[in-house]
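User: When convenient, might I ask for sequence and structure tokens for a protein?

AI:
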Amino acid sequence: MPCYVVTLQCTDGPGIVLAASSAIVALGGNIVENDQFTDPMTNQFCMRTRFETALDDVERVRSSLAQELARFTPSLTVRPEHVRRRALILVSKFDHCLADLLYRREQGDLALDIAAVVSNHPDCRDLAARYSVPFHEVAVNPTNRDQAEAQLWALVGEYRVDFVVLARYMQVLSSDLCAKLAGRAINIHHSFLPGFKGAKPYHQAYERGVKLIGATAHFVTVDLDEGPIIDQDVVRVSHAREPGELVALGRDIERNVLSRAVGLVSEDRVALVGNRTVVFSQ
């Protein structure tokens, strides 16, 4: 039977779950998965529901749910589960995160269509070709940044993508592009205590004798590396680890955290609530 994924977000109040459930029952649906949460700071109610029905008509499903829930004025999405989210991957020279996403997608571990890869360098062209994914090189320099971002934005529209993934894309997006991609751009960032900025963060970590290294996947905002967090992880290291070993460990944790975050977003399991996220685990 067709299966639908529904997400909604609105101000909390009595009757929201009843209204959604009533609409689903009226459609002959059977709920097979449901998660809900009310954020205590904002009183925002978030819900993700997955249900089956013999009805193969997404517009009728969307209309019925919208009508039943209208009094709550929710932000509502309805997606047939077989319709995959589409992503545009941005990358520079480091290919470990891109390679992991492409491999997981090919193996069926990510419910995602990778529409294209965009890079400011040619280094990952062969990797994209290996997986038959279109590759676009959009060079970026101080004199053409506006033109490059215009090209990037055009590709977002051309490929009709739902979100963008910065898989070690070593360029800062402008405030204008961040605004256009609000809630639709995911970045991976090496996170340490303390936070090491600039070049060779793992070498800086080694020099400071860190005991934990980690990574954070977050939504992109104009505040660099401070967007709402989707997923994080850390690994313990000892004083005996050399910089090269930290780099290798860092690659592993970066690609694992980013892949988890991309998987969560592609399955509509992440809701943005102010500066935080509500994440319904897989």
